[in-house]
# Entry
Amino acid sequence: MASFTYKAIDHNGETENGYLVAENINEAQNELKNRKLIPLKLKKSNTRFNFSFFSSIGFSKLSLISRQLSTLINSGIPVDQALDSVSNQIEPLRVKNKLKQVSLKVKSGFKFSESLEEHPESFDKLYCSLIKAGESSGELGLILEKTSDFLERRANMTQEITGALVYPAILFTVALGIISMLLVYVVPDVVSQFSSLNRELPFLTKYLINLSEMIRSPFFLFSLMIPLLSFFILVRYLGAEKVKTKFDKVLLKIPVIKDFLLDADLSRFTSSLSLLRMGNVSILNALQISSDTISNSYLRSSIKKASNNVKEGESIARSLEKVDVVPPLVIQMIQNGENSGKLEEMLSKLSDYLETRFKNSTKIAMNLLEPLVIIILGVFVALIVLAILLPLIQLNTFTTTL
# Structure
């Protein structure tokens, strides 16, 4: 696929500028004709800086698209017309043109799922598999509606994770910056006033002076570079994926963070697995596709390895028992679902439970973390002030004695 920029006149006689994606310039011209545009200028755009990040579609936007498509398709409107209708209302322009391109493929005789598979940066394996399941079952509108709900929950959870991680990071950075400024700029000027005194300074004051001198030393910056250099060498030697897997494994051993990460990842995993099974996707494919929604690389690889045992006839619950970080409650509920023949329903309930627990733990963490950072900052500032005041108190006592 190539990108083309164009300048054309619409049916109202007004000039329109934009870009579209097509196989070649002839297909681009046909696309303009389909849009009832008269091309004035059409040329291939420079895709040198066209990174996939900028061409992806977020969960919130994809949820909105899926819901609108579901409404139109359930009303009996053909898929290509539904795509055209949604693309005319959606923003930004890159998403609009992406849907137009998918619509063009559908009009050319390709299935909806096949057209989506040509844009993996925007429509992942899970989304394409759900659409394919909807086409096979004849319930595309219903699957799109359920997919929209799933994407909406996934977008909300992503926002929860971002909020839970970004806010404490900002607080910690600000606190560290304030303490560093005090040690680098304030403490040396104030403490230098005591250098002329021929008296032994208090331990806290001497420690503060040494800490301030160490931070201002060029060797301190060099010492900060050592961990970064070690990390770079480790990545080059082992590979980025192995280093990330080892780091993710360590995260799953930290008590509070472990529960936080497991609830988020396993909620996505069970929810997507439930959706795929409702669409009659084979259990093996469903397990592999659902595993890709897990962000923790160690958990993802462990579940994929355990899923291979299902090929040999093992149940899902028995396979997941071999993953040491999966909580017993998750395994028990999946086992109950398999024994009762209501696996999809049990997976959906399990996902809702994990999502609720994740949201509650996030709120608790946010409520505790803010005062904790403020208390830590207050303690450090109080120690700095005390280290400055102690020599003054000592000098005042000595003067009074004399």
About this structure: The chain is about 75% helix and 5% strand. The two ends are 89 Å apart (CA to CA). The first strand starts at residue 2 and ends at 9. Residues 343-401 form the longest helix (59 residues).
